[in-house]
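For the sake of transparency, this paper describes our internal protein records without simplification. The tokens are whole numbers drawn from a learned vocabulary of local backbone shapes. One such record is reproduced below, unchanged from the form in which we store it.

. . .
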Amino acid sequence: MLNVDIEGAAELAARFDAMPTAIRAALKDKIADLADRLVDKIKNDKLGGEVLRARTGALQGSIEASVDDAGASVFSAGVKYAFAQEYGFDGDESVAAHSRAIREAFGNAIAPKTIFVRAFSRHMNLPERSFMRSALDDMQDEITQALSDAVSEGLDT
């Protein structure tokens, strides 16, 4: 699972608890809205072709947001390759024995046939393709302004 968390969340939560109720409510609503907008940006922009192109939609479907009194998290759940795409990977990978269907041999079409492949290892050098951190960086100014506006709105009530 891949998470994007706010550094100093415990300190932020303590300060958040000390704030007046109106400011806390305004900030919580704004944080929930921003988390949803970040998820949309990741799914639609970053995974929609800007950084990666969706093949099956599994990675897009795995992006979620969680908001509670302690803060917000945007994460990918259940997709093993999310971390490798976000941060890159250079190392050896073991591939388990498996079967596969072939429809071509030596460049010629053949009737579909199932073959068995032995276990093997391969070296992978996958470059970093940040879709979560880059989306957060893209929204940094918007997030800062929105939180500042939420505090101002909370003070006005």
